[in-house]
Design goal:
alpha+beta, Alpha-Beta Plaits, 11 helices, elongated
Length: about 270
Amino acid sequence: METLGSFLRALCRGHTYDLRRNRFAWFGFAWGLPIPIFSLALDHLLLDNFGHRSPFSILLEHPWHIYFLAHPFAFAVIFGAFGTLFEDLKTRNRELFERLQHEATTDSLTAASTRRFVLDELDRALARSERSTDPVAVILMDMDNFKEVNDTQGHLAGDRLLRQVADALRAALRRGDTLGRYGGDEFLIVAPGSREGAVSVAERARQAVLDRTGHTISAGIAASGENGRSASELIMAADADLAVKKRQHKTRRFGPPTAGPGTPRA
């Protein structure tokens, strides 16, 4: 019933047919064109025995031929409606596919790539690296003290912070880099190129996050060849490097104060 209703609505939109693109309307017109030709030829044969009357005079004498003359136009409208319905369905299917693809590859909160997509991109980058011998680096980034934001300001504030962080990270990327939300407050960047290039991206990303949010973020870096050749090896190495950076950050934040003039030496 829904398809029938769509067809009837398309049929009523005959004035909107784009005859340059709706090939169905032209096909319907061509399909119905032999009907009036055959009816006039048959009338010419049976009633006039191939006399010298013109088709126009036959039409004047027998107006019922108008019924047959209308067939090409009627077929054009009907087939054109089918064409319009087909194009509408194709457009809806394409929009549905694009929306599903977007939902499957884009994180709904941060608009970064999903974990699956960024890992697939890492696999593709490593495959290209094997063919070209160009290195690939990964940057695993994690917000510092993000739990405190959720505990003190609430999860809505935490979500807002994650969106701001993702925007700042995107601004720091180079062309060809891929940003994905790896999980929670962790982000993974696939950065084709050397470790030095990835270090530069990580530094820009940290500064961009600090400038935009006032919060710090730690980064662990691993490069193909140096830290492994598979995606799992690189991510494990980047995670280990990230853990070291997080410990250093905590030491700088919570370590003992610098000895002053009045502080006794050990």
